[in-house]
C-alpha cells in the first residue's frame, strides 16, 4: 500500500490534517522546533487582499490608508502585476497561518511547513520577538484597539478620529523605544487602565505647566531643562506630555504606539525570518519525500515554487527590485549547515564553528540570537557573496560617476559584509529624530533635533511636523544640522 | 497540535476602510463621477462597477524619511559580471535613481489608485445632496397587478377547496375532547358494576338477600348504557370540523419599468442640446433604475418622421428636415401596445425638444396625448436652449393642468440639469416648469 499523503493535487481538510501531522513529526524530531500551537485558516484571494491591507493582522481598526493600500494591491493583483503570497502568518499564540484556497495540495504542504512551522518557530524563539512582542495577548489587544477606536468614532466623529490617526501614523516610525524593553500587553488591563487614565488625565491636562517656580527664584526662566534628556519616542512623548490633548486622543496614540512596537521586530528580522522559514520548508519537504510520503511529481512542483521564491534577479535584470530577503536568508542558513557539514579551508578561516557536526545547534543559535543586521555581519560567508555575485557601489553627490567600492574577492568580502549590514540598518531604521526641549516658561514650543547625519526629505519632514504640531498644540521646530524646519503656516487661516 | 478553520465564508472586511477612503477623496470622486456621467453610455453608468483613479498625492502619508537623491550612499547589489574594484560607472541621465514603470493597460501609473465604486456608491455621489429615499417615495406609484395568493384556512368555502388534512385534524381534536370526560366516567361506572357483581355473587353464595344490590346494578347498567349511547353519538366528523383552503386576491407591484426617450433630432438640435438631453435622460434612467428591478429603454428619434434606434444612433444622429412631434407620440403608443402593455409595465416617457413643431401638428399632438397620458406613470418634457416658451411648451402646460402625470421643464445650460432634477423629484408639489 502506498504511503503517499496525496497523489492528486486537490486539497481537502482531511489531507491538510494528515500533512500537518506528518510535518509536525519531522519538525519535532529532526529539526527540534519549538512552536506555538498552530491555527490554520483557509481564506479566499479577496480575504488575502484584506489581510495585506492590514499588515496581515486579523483584526485591525479602520482607517482610510488601509483602504488605499487595498485599492492599490487589488488593482495590481487584477492586472496580473502582482501574485499574492501563498501564505501569511501572524505572530500570535496560537500561531495563525492563512492558506489560500487557490493553492494546490503541494502548495498547502509547502505553506504549512514554511509558515506554520518555520515562521512559527522563529516567532517563538527569536530573542527580538521574545523581547518585543507578546504573542498571547496580541489578538485580544487588537480587538480592544478596534473596539476603542470604533467607540471614539461614535463619540467624537469619524473625521476627528481620522485626524488623530493620520498624525499618529505620520510619526509612528518614531514611536519606538529602541533602548528599552517594552511592557507586555494585556487587553483587559489595558482596557481598565485607559478608563482610569482618561479620567485622570482629563483633570490633569495642564499638569506639566503647573509646576510653578518656587517663590525664591527670581528668574521666570527655569534653568532645568525639560525633558531632562532627549527623547527618541515621539509618540510616547506626545502622549504623555502634550499640553491640551484630550484623553481619548492620547489613548489612540498609545494604541498606534503599541501596535507599531508589536510590528517592529518583523521589520528588523525580515531576512532571517524568511530565510529560516525557507530553510525549514526545504528540509521538511525533502524529508517527507525521503519517507515516501510525497510523490516525485509533488517534489518537482515544490522545486518550481521554491526556486521562484528564492530567486535573486541580477541588478541589471528587469525584475530586479532590491535584494530578495528570501534568497539571501535561505542562502545564509543553508550555508551555515554546509559550513558545519562540509567546511572548506576558507570556512575554517572565517568561522570558528566550521566543521562542528551538530549543524542544528548552530542553526538554532543563529535563529535565536540575531537580527538582520547582526546576522549578516556574523554569517554572510564569502561563498554566499560569490554565489550572489555581490558588489558594492558608492555614490558621492559631487562626483559624476558611481564607484565600485568592493566586489566578491578576498579584498572585498569584509567590506561587502559591513556595507550590507549598514544598508540593512539604514533601511530598517527611521531617521533619528528626538525631542530635545520644551519651552515650558515661554510659548510652549517643542523643539526636535535630528541626531543622525543622513539627509532628510525636507518636504516630507515639514508635512510630518504639521501633524506633530496638530497633536502638540503649539509650535514645533526641527533642527537639522544647519537649519531649522518649522511648519509653514497654520493649515487653516480661519483660526484666531 | 493544530486546528484548521475554514474562513472563506466569513467574507471580506474591507468595507469600513473602503468607506473611509471614499470619504477622504469624495470631492475628487464626485467630479470624476460627473465627468463619466457626461461621456459614458447610459446603461453602463448605472450597471457596472466604476473604477475611478485618484492621484496618490491626494492620499499621501508623510513621515520622517531619508532623502537618498541628494546624499552619498553605498549600496550592495547582486549579479556582478565584469566590475572590478575601483571601476567607475556613469550615473544615469537626470540623476534619478528610481526607474519609472511604464503605463499599464488601463492607464494607471504608480501615482494613481483605482477606487472601484459600486453602482449605489456611484449614484450616491452623482445625486449628492439629493435625498434618495425621498426620491423613491415620490415616484408616481406603481402599477398594481392583482394576484391570487394562498391566505390561510377558513371554516367556510366551496367543497372543492376543502382541506382534508386540516378537517380531519379538527375532527379528531373535537372527538378526543368530547369523549375524554365521558370515557372516564364510563370507566368508573364499569368498575363499580364489576365490584357490585362480585358482591352479588358472594352474597348469593352465602345465601343472603341481593334484591337491594340487584336494584343498584340495574341502576348502574342504565347509566352505563346512556353514557355508551352518548359516546357513540359523538359524530366522526362534524360540520364544525370542516376547513377550507383560502385564497385571496392581493395586489402585487410590477417591478418592471420602461423608459421611452423621445428626442427631436432635426437640424435645430445641436451638440449642446443633445448633451443636455443626454444628461437629463441619464439622470432619469438612474433614478428609475434605483426604483425598479429592471428598466428597459426605448430610444425614439424624430424629425418629420419618427424611428426607433440604438443609443449611439440616438445621440449621434443629426438629421435635417422639419419637425413633427406627433409621429413620435404615435410611435410610442404603437410600441407600448405591442411590447409594453400597461398592466405589466410602468411606463415613463421622457421627451426632449427645442420646442420647434409645425404649427398644425400641435392639435394632433394634443389629441394623442389625451389618449396616452392616462396610461403613463409620467411624461417628462424638457425644453432645451430656448429663450422664450414655445407653442409646444404652452400646449403641454395647458394639458398638464388636467394631467398631473405631465411634467414640463426648461433648461439652457448643463448646470441647469441637476437642480432641475432636484426640483422635479425632491419636492412634494411638482412644478409645472422651472
The number of E-state strands of chain B comes to 13
* Major sheet characteristics of chain A: 4 strands, mixed
Question: How many helix segments of chain B?
Answer: 13
Per CATH, the class of the largest domain in chain B reads Alpha Beta
Residue fraction in strands of chain B: 15-25%
Question: What is the overall number of helices of chain A?
Answer: 20
Number of domains of chain B: 3
Q: What would you note in describing this structure?
A:
The complex is a heterodimer of chains A (496) and B (434). By secondary structure, chain A is α/β, with parallel strands linked by helices. In chain A, 53% of the residues lie in helices and 10% in strands. Chain A is built from 20 helices and nine strands. In chain A, the strands form three sheets. A four-stranded mixed β-sheet of chain A has the order 6-7-8-9, covered by helices on one side. A three-stranded mixed β-sheet of chain A has the order 1-3-2. Chain A has a two-stranded antiparallel ribbon with strand order 4-5. In chain A, helix 7 crosses helix 20 and helix 14 runs antiparallel to helix 16. The C terminus of chain A is likely disordered. With 434 residues, chain B is α/β, with parallel strands linked by helices. Chain B is built from 13 helices and 13 strands. Chain B has a six-stranded mixed β-sheet with strand order 10-9-8-11-12-13, with helices on both faces. A two-stranded antiparallel sheet of chain B has the order 2-5. In chain B, strands 6-7 form a two-stranded antiparallel sheet. In chain B, helix 6 packs antiparallel against helix 7. Chain B starts with a strand and ends in an 8-residue tail after the last helix. The interface between A and B is large, with 94 and 62 residues.
